Amino acid sequence: MLFNLISKLDKKLKFSTASAHCDIPCKIYDPISAQIAVLTMIRMVDLLNDINEKSNLTANDQAQFHRLLNQKEEHGNKVKEEIRIIWGDYIKQPQLEKFPELHALTHSIMLASSKAKQHIDKDATLDLLNKVNRFAEIFWATKGLETYTAVCPYPPTQTLVYPKLN
Amino acid sequence: MGFKFIRITGHSMMPRIPDNSYVLIHTWLKIFKPKPGNTLLIKHHKYGHIIKTLSHIDKQGFYWVKGESMQSVSMSNIGPIIKEQILGKVCITLSANH
């Protein structure tokens, strides 16, 4: 209650600030990188399935297939890395107390990302997106920001969680 | 009055002083001299206004301060602090969790 009162006073009076300075460029955390990496995986699966529907594959089709597969693999690793960094560097006891599901959710993202890498399976990538979106929702809640969902305006036109920044 | 509220940004004083919390500081440093364990507002030549915990005062009278989390910039990087750089002492911390 007192915090809220001081917070309101701060908005009116603009208190000066002091930094609890860190040695690394901390505080630059954003789950959007992980979300975009999952979208890339979904897009790769769509394009891989397009090639898969062809009866005869040319050398170019085969080269494209490998290229798409590599990108899916790479972005699966990126999802893991981005989520691990937020989990390992940003998430601490206060966030864990508010959101006790964070450890289990992070672990489930690691597993879901592996599954999405192992197969050309759209359901697996969509399941991964759901989990990463939930992670994003929690992340922004820890920042005191509300979120909304919207369909990204580019392929694979899936729903993402975005922060309300206004 | 010698009191003022300051908003804290950064994670180096976690978990005691989380990011975006407020501290009430007083500037009566001649009466209440800084002691090890006190949290101080410091004007640093490189980092600007920072908040750190006083570790010790050496024989030359320099103040050595540190953060409370693993992420904090190290005591040696902050370097020795002279008395004139100490602007205030934290007496109350208010965070969203309290």
Quick structural summary:
The complex is a heterodimer of chains A (166) and B (98). With 166 residues, chain A is mainly alpha-helical. Chain A has six helices and three strands.
Describe the protein's architecture and organization.
The complex is a heterodimer of chains A (166) and B (98). Chain A has 166 residues and is mostly helical. Chain A has one domain: Up-down Bundle (Four Helix Bundle (Hemerythrin (Met), subunit A)). Helices cover 66% and strands 8% of the residues of chain A. Chain A is built from 6 helices and 3 strands, in the order αβαααααββ. Chain A has helices at 2-13, 32-52, 59-90, 93-98, 102-118, 122-142, and strands at residues 17-19, 147-151, 159-163. Chain A has a two-stranded antiparallel ribbon. In chain A, β2 (147-151) and β3 (159-163) form a beta hairpin. The longest helix of chain A is centred in the middle third of the chain and has 32 residues, at 59-90. The radius of gyration of chain A is 20 Å and the shape is elongated. The mean pLDDT of chain A is 92. Chain B is mainly beta and 98 residues long. Chain B has a single domain, classed as Umud Fragment, subunit A, CATH 2.10.109. Chain B has a 6-stranded antiparallel β-sheet. The termini of chain B are far apart. The chains are: A mainly alpha (166), B mainly beta (98). At the A-B interface, α1, β1 and α4 of A face β1, β2 and β4 of B. β1 (17-19) of chain A pairs parallel with β1 of chain B.
